[in-house]
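Re: folding output
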Amino acid sequence: MNRHGAGMVSLASPRCATDVIASDVADAVSDVVQTDLLSCGRCPRLRHYLKQLRHQYPDYWNRPVPASGNTDAPLQIIGLAPGLHGANRTGRPFKGDASGDLLWRVLSQLGIEDQVQITNVVKCLPRNNLPLASEVRRCQRFLVPELSAMPMTSVILALGGVAHKAIVQALDARQVDYPFGHSHCHQIGERWVVDSYHCSRYNVQTGRLTETMFRDVVELAYQFATDQPK
C-alpha cells in the first residue's frame, strides 16, 4: 500500500421518538454510560437549544442520541452530530434525514446494514450543525467508551474532519501525525481509521462527495475490517 504520512495509507422511514431506544441502542454502550448520556446537560448552549426545541417540536426526541448497533460489529461509523430533523427527531444516529438516507442506502447496497455500529462525536444537536470545540471535548466522555467497547479488529469510518479529529483525540494520538483526507486510512495504535467526507446534503449537492465515492469508501472500510486476522 502507498503511504502518505505517519500511519496513513490511501486507500427509511423514521420511527416515533417515543419508541427509539430499542435493544440495538441499549446494547451499544454500557448501562452506566447510557444513563449518564441520556441525562447529560454539561453543555449549557446545547441544553438550552434542546429545551427550546421541546416546545417547538414536542414529538421529537430532543435529547442526547446514543449509538446504534452492536459492539461486536466489524465497522464503526462515526459522524459529527445529530441532525435537526434526523437523529434529533428519531433518536437514532443517521435516521430520518438526507445524510442518513444516503448512508443506509449504501449500507443496503453492500448488504451490511446489520454489521455496523453508528454514532456521532457530539451526542446533542448543535445549533446550525456547528458544535463548539468545547462541546466536542466534553463528549469525549462518551466517545472514548464507545471506541473501547468495540473489538480491536473493528475499523472506524470517520465522516468528516471534525469527527476525524475527535477520534484521533479519543485514541490519544497527535493530530499532526494523522491528517484528514477522503479515503485515507490511518493506523492509530492498534486501531484503523478510514476517512470520508461527510455524507451531508451540502457535500452531495456541491459535488464534493458523490454516492459512488461514498459507497467506495464504505466498502473499503468494511473490506479492511473483515480482512484483518481475528
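--- second protein (sequence, then structure) ---
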Amino acid sequence: MFRAFGRQVSGIKYLLTHPHQLKWVITREIHFGQRKKSKRKWVEWQKYDANMHIMMMQEHAELLTVNTLNVDRIKIFNDMVNGIGKDLQILDVGCGDGVISEPLMRIGHFVAAVDLPTVATSAHKCRVSSIMAGDAETLAFADGSFDLVIASEVLEHLWAPESFINEASRTLKPRGHLIIETPEGMAGLNYDSHMNYYTVEKLEKMLTPKFAVKKVERLAATGSAQTPTIIVFFEKTN
C-alpha cells in the first residue's frame, strides 16, 4: 500500500514539473475519461493516441534512425519470416509506420497492411504492397488469404483480443503462421493506451488449440521501449 502511495506521489510530482505531460493528462481525461466504458470510446482514444505518437515521431525523426530496438526487431522478424519461405502473402495488422512490413516487401514478399484510419493515412508513406484502414477484430479479408499474419505491438491495445486471434486464424492458410510482438508482463499496463498485458504462458493458453508456439524471442527494455518485449512465433494447427 505504501509503495503504491509513493508511486502516486512521484507521479504527481513528475506532472507538476513537466507541463507538457500535465497538459496531455488533462486533455486525455477531459475528452477520453470514459475510454474504457465501450469499444467505440476505446477506439476513439486509440486514434487520438496514435495521432499524438505519429506527431512525436515526426518531430524527432532523427532519434528513430538510431533506434536499436527497431534494428533488433527487424532482424528477428526477418529471420522468422525467412524460415517460412519465399514470396509469401503477408498481412501486417497495426502496421504503424511500416518499420516491420517495408523491409519484408523489399525482399520479395507481398505485404498487405491494415491500421486505424488515422495511422493508415500516415502509413501510406511507407512502400508496402497494399494498405487500408480497418479493424483488427474484424479483418476485411477472405478465408485462407495469407501465409503469415503479423501483429507487432497490437494485441495489448485491443478491446477484444480474442476476436483478433479468431480473425488471424480465419484469414491464414492451413499451417500458416502468426507472429505476435507485445510488452512482457504487467509492466505493459504502464502505458495508458494498453488494455491488456501478456506473458508467453498467457499467449500460449489464449491461442491454444488454434495455434502452437514454435519460437520465442525477447528484447530487453531500452530508452525507446521501457518494458521488456516478447516476439512469439506461432504455427496454425490446421
